[in-house]
Amino acid sequence: MVSIHQISLRRLCRLFALVFRHNRHCSNSSKNRSAQTWRSVVGLEIHAQIQSESKLFSGASTKYAGSTNTQVSIFDAAIPGTLPVLNRRCIEAGVRTAGALGCKISQVSKFDRKHYFYADLPTGYQITQQRHPLARDGKVKYLVYNTDNWNKYNWKTASIIQLQIEQDSGKSLHDADRNRSLIDLNRAGVGLMEIVTAPDFTDGEDASSFVRELVLILRRLETCSGKMEEGALRVDANISVHRPGEPLGVRTEIKNLNSIRSVGRAIDYEIKRQIAELESGREIVNETRSFDAQSGQTIAMRDKEKLQDYRFMPEPNLLPVFLYDSKSVPMGVDRASVIVIDNLLQGLPPAPSESYERIHKDHKISIRNCVILVNEDGLLKMFDDIIEKRDAKALTNFLITDFLGVTHARNINLLQSPVPLRHIADLFDMKTDRCISNDNISQVLELMFDFPDKTPAEIVKEKQLDNIQDTEVLRAECEKTLLKHPDVVQRWKVSQQKEKKGRQDPVIKLVNTTMTALKNRADPLVLISIFEKLLSKK
Amino acid sequence: MLSLTLKEVVHQIQQGKICAKELCEKCIARAARVKELNAFTTETHTIAKNQASASAERQATLATLPLDGVPVAVKDNFCTKGIRTTCASRMLENFVPPYNATMVEKLLSNGACLVGKTNLDEFGMGCGSIDSIYGPVRNPWKYHFISQSLTEAGLQFGGKEPHAMTYSQLKARGIHMSAQSRSKVLRQTRETETMTADGHCGDDWYIAGGSSGGSAVAVASGVCFGALGSDTGGSVRNPASYCGVVGFKPTYGRLSRHGLIPLVNSLDVPGIFTKTVDDAAILFNHLAGHDVNDSTTVTDPFHQQDLSDISIKDLCIGIPKEYHSPGLSEEILNAWKWAADLFEKAGAKVVPVSLPHTQYSIVCYSVLCCCEVSSNMARYDGIEFGYRAENNESTEELNAASRHYGFNDVVQGRIFAGNYFLLRQNYEKYFMKAQRVRRLISEDFHKVYSKKVDILLTPTTPTEAPLYSWFSEQDNRTRTAEQDVYTQPVNMAGIPAVNVPVRLSKAGLPVSLQLIGQSFKDHDLLTVARWLEQQVQFPRLDLSYLD
């Protein structure tokens, strides 16, 4: 049925292409008009590997980057006579994810076989959930933003059509020189959640923002690592363009986008390509394309699937997956042996969009900083735990600039940080109370990671990193600086006579010199006031 | 010793009256004597001897296992670790599984000795056990053994196989390796033999039935005391009927299919061949139960149960009127009436019942079977295991060539049909409709049982064992449609059924009947079967004259 539908769409498009060409001859302004009036429609299919110890239907490990063909059970290799045994953990992960995506979770879902021959698909079929998926009809609110322009952002909601559980395939390597194919089955049979969205996106930025949000959701749930660079989450994008008021255009599918950046670039390229094709009177072919990240272009794949009939059939070796509400567990059924939806959905972490909104509203933090706080695992919790009555903007800056600066340099996962939260809060307070200069903060932080048992106060005292509070000492040092730099003093005098604007420059120069001499153990503001007093006497 | 029942053998081994090693040797010797029946694809005599030695050691310490020293055979579609498992197909001729099927594991862990893997129709697709790359299986009943005639003629075998010694003689008798198999690989061989196949005269033999013909023959000919088969549409009960042994197809979900190379997953059930119903119950007791490797096995605990004598008085036996079909022979019909009378005379209520959708079972089966076959066979692509063709031009070419040469015509035909039925535009029309019809067939049985009928009594096969010459006149599909007619609906419903041989026909061949029970009431069914068996006193085949 779908193919007939597509053919008629293609015919329609050809018709429109003709009409359009005709118009072009009549109107000189058509070129301008066309560039502005195309609408692009994008839908996504996301394959997220389920974070589980073992595969969907076998006990083999799912660890990434294992030695070739070492994580293959006899079932994964399709050895005759083997049967699938459902990994309950994968269904639970699917239920939690479906819950977080606002889906309706099916009390009964079923597995189907999807047939096609491919060397890295040992059984000749993929076990998936075509007709009765685990969940349907979800909604995800997400923030559309562009890291190049933080002022331009907006909230959108995308619809999830369905979430189904299925098997991943193996990997093929084609050795063209020696005319052979090599197959690694380590990935074959790893559990996947296929998340299908409605065609709700308009362009690359929109779609990639959604994927970013989804990755965050999955990582918070710990149902998928979201590591796109490891192939743990791959995106297929369906793209078409049409004119407003006209039916949707013929779509192409870009397969296996493996970074958020690629999602955005590939979609934007494909939209431009389709518009260019249509504007030059050609038509779009319903085909599968791949994205070459180096050239930034999409390329038509050798398309065997266009007329492929997958000959879906129910998987006869698996019982339907029955899920229960805690109230609907039938009498006599052992509760421990069944999956109870509401139990699994208890204590789901809040959606990232909720977190953005909360901290943006409650603490007036910029969207950029909200995004960083939320995206960095554990950082938002740290913020929430420390904030109390403290200044939110200052704390955010401290966490993002000072704290992340050190953890990123040291490649430390925040969730595994050895430094007690109390010490971090203390350090922030010391900074706020101007007990320690900004320039010494990172040094203190480094030492806190080296000696997690010591408080910042102890470290600062031991290593003499705290600010010198004795104003006499400071003034003496400032006077020394003035004596050493008469030229700067002279410049200050000149600036005083001319215009007030340039007044600060020489002072800052003096402060910086003094700070270095004091090994940064001073509050620059205090130094400024000392210098202002000293200079005014001259 | 080989005429004993499994129960007797178990008893005597436990008592130390029979030595496991000696018994094993006797079975191996008998296997050599009846080798021309072609019941085995692979003989595992060395393995059996080692297992028997281990049994003998346990006998010495009196710490025996329940089936210690009992020689058994397993259909060559159950995976056996380190022993090739071929499904009688070119495709798996070189396939050595890395694991044991649960059924095999249970037999071996209970002390049984595996004497060999038995012959079958390729991948279990057939009802004559003649479509095998190893050639057809022959029914031991009324069989004129060459070994016997040679001995009579004063010839000695020495250590050589009768086949090798007397191949020209075999050929002269119209016995050839692969009449029905249309595998391209075999076509050439067959063409050279067509003359003899068509021109046989008098030197015909009876087919064993199938597809588990090898297992039925192994038990009937005394090579072993129990054998495993698989029953998808009657593949255990049909050969049991023709070979005069008990063939038990338990309730779907009672025995694990893990390691059974599937024909139709939703219909396949491991089945048991033995000489008596008691023997079947013993094996069933040791084989049944939940298996974590097969999600379709039931999880409720299984309790071993010995069969006890029962009073037939409270029993209600149903006679399905639809089973009086035109193909039913006089001989079988009479035996059926006779058995019904035996029940009635013993006080049971015998009532006619109706299974109105039974007539659609065969056509429904052929759709469902082909669909699952096309899917199950998709893994045979010449890459991970099995036959790989030489063609390396591309993966597609390699797949196509491997499948073209690896499968016989019957398998290929079912794959084509199945793929057609599963096409998007056909799915509703064929597969879905067949599923609905299947439910109706299944409901027929449940309706009958809900009306206080305990057991159904029916024929197993329309006739006694047919001659090979007659059977091979028609193709596999035609024969399956006529042969499976009484057995096949049972698989649709997943209920248990057992073949019980009841008497000999005028031609001296076994005449058998089928008893059909209720879901998970396997022991009740066997108890009634045992009663019938005791009444009829079927004369079992005795081939001791060959030893």
From TrEMBL, chain A:
The UniProt record lists the Asn/Gln amidotransferase domain at 381-535
| Annotated Gene Ontology cellular component terms | glutamyl-tRNA(Gln) amidotransferase complex; mitochondrion
**Entry's InterPro entries?**
Asn/Gln-tRNA_amidoTrfase_suB/E, Asn/Gln-tRNA_Trfase_suB/E_cat, Asn/Gln_amidotransferase, Asn/Gln_tRNA_amidoTrase-B-like, GatB, GatB_Yqey_C_2, Gln-tRNA_amidoTrfase_suB_CS, Gln_synth/guanido_kin_cat_dom
Q: Which PROSITE patterns does this one have? A: GATB
Gene3D superfamilies given for it? Answer: 1.10.10.410
Catalytic activity of the protein: L-glutamyl-tRNA(Gln) + L-glutamine + ATP + H2O = L-glutaminyl-tRNA(Gln) + L-glutamate + ADP + phosphate + H(+)
Localization: Mitochondrion
Q: Does the keyword ATP-binding apply?
A: yes
Quick one: signal sequence residues?
none
Keyword Cell membrane, does the record have it? no
* UniProt entry keywords in alphabetical sequence: ATP-binding, Ligase, Mitochondrion, Nucleotide-binding, Protein biosynthesis
Family statement: Belongs to the GatB/GatE family. GatB subfamily.
**Functional description taken from the UniProt entry:** Allows the formation of correctly charged Gln-tRNA(Gln) through the transamidation of misacylated Glu-tRNA(Gln) in the mitochondria. The reaction takes place in the presence of glutamine and ATP through an activated gamma-phospho-Glu-tRNA(Gln).
Quaternary organization:
Subunit of the heterotrimeric GatCAB amidotransferase (AdT) complex, composed of A, B and C subunits.
Name by which UniProt lists this protein: Glutamyl-tRNA(Gln) amidotransferase subunit B, mitochondrial
Taxonomy of origin reads: Eukaryota, Metazoa, Spiralia, Lophotrochozoa, Mollusca
Automatic annotation (TrEMBL), chain B:
Q: Which HAMAP family does the protein's record reference?
A: GatA
Annotated Pfam families: Amidase
Q: Could you give the subunit structure recorded for this chain?
A: Subunit of the heterotrimeric GatCAB amidotransferase (AdT) complex, composed of A, B and C subunits.
Q: Which GO terms of the molecular function aspect are on file? A: ATP binding; glutaminyl-tRNA synthase (glutamine-hydrolyzing) activity
The annotated active site, in chain numbering, is K75, S211, S235
Q: Which organism is it from?
A: Sinanodonta woodiana
Q: Kind of enzyme, top EC level?
A: ligase
Catalysed conversion reaction: L-glutamyl-tRNA(Gln) + L-glutamine + ATP + H2O = L-glutaminyl-tRNA(Gln) + L-glutamate + ADP + phosphate + H(+)
Q: Which family does it belong to?
A: Belongs to the amidase family. GatA subfamily.
Task: Report the EC number(s), separated by commas if there are several.
Answer: 6.3.5.7
Keywords, A to Z?
Answer: ATP-binding, Ligase, Mitochondrion, Nucleotide-binding, Protein biosynthesis
Q: What does this protein do?
A: Allows the formation of correctly charged Gln-tRNA(Gln) through the transamidation of misacylated Glu-tRNA(Gln) in the mitochondria. The reaction takes place in the presence of glutamine and ATP through an activated gamma-phospho-Glu-tRNA(Gln).
**Location of this chain's protein in the cell:** Mitochondrion
Q: Name the InterPro entries for this protein.
A: Amidase, Amidase_CS, Amidase_dom, AS_sf, GatA
Start and end residues of each Amidase domain: 22-145, 204-526
A Gene Ontology biological process noted in the UniProt record is: mitochondrial translation
Record-level GO cellular component terms: glutamyl-tRNA(Gln) amidotransferase complex; mitochondrion
The protein in question is named Glutamyl-tRNA(Gln) amidotransferase subunit A, mitochondrial
| UniProt superkingdom | Eukaryota
